[in-house]
Amino acid sequence: MILEEYDNLKEKEPFFKNGEKKIDNNLERLFEQIKEFETKGNAFIYRGCSEAKYRMYSSAQRLYINQELHRQVPEDRISEHYRKFITELIQSAKSWNNGVIKRLLASAGIDENNDLAYLSYMQHFGVPTPLLDFTYNPYIALFFAIDNLKYTPSNKEIDNYFSFYYTYTEASVFESWKYVFDTNLKKKDISYETIDLNCMSILLPDNELYNIFNSVNIINQEGLFFYNNHPWYALERTYHEDIEKTKKELGQKKFDALLMHDTVAGCFNIHKSLIPAIKQRLGEIGITANYVYPDMNDFRNKTTNEGILKSLTLKK
What we know:
This protein is of the alpha/beta class. Helix content is about 45%, strand content about 15%.
């Protein structure tokens, strides 16, 4: 099966605030808006996407859908089967290379039965997980959106845009997710079955359970995760279904009073012709490939060479 995509920008409107919004020129509007977001500190988080048509599927969903793994079971057992699929991925991570990752976690003081820690590690190294990457840094999100992106003009409007997403994490719905999720995850022994009780959550790096500092990439990328347990609904649709149900239960007046959001994120769709200008702006503030993906060979060579250079007596 092929993943669902948006056919046009209007289709994004029910799922994202300003889902149709386009930036075709005047790039300053985007950077002025980012500056305004930054005045709120870490209240906003961001995600960049190379194609405006892409939905927010996790890597586990992409694999599960593309390879039609759901065909292994009857329709009413797909959710259970997907949960088993994630659980088996985690078990494989635990046993890989004679349990070296388990020992790594133990050396960092993390319980070896903390499945969330394994998911974090797996996500960082490209193993499929139900996690979706966001970042606290809007410029990093822009970098990820355009990294290695080449503009090939298309007669289909949406193909000519990439997307920059932003969301306010202090909205009450996100606060409730964090409270429920954190309450369930205070225990050391955290199984995926426990994690799966929550259809969605934000996983923040300020909790030691959520992050393993095994790489300088993690520091520079300022990442965090959204969790989505649905086998085939993209994050924005899972949120949309959940929030519509909540709105019916609470009523519109109470829903508004609680400052809940109708959509999971806001969106700017940016024309790909602006990529060179964005790269230039990012370079001016030091957001480059070398910063986002630190080259440890470069670290070794430069550190060694500078040490040698500073020890030389070049003048008498």
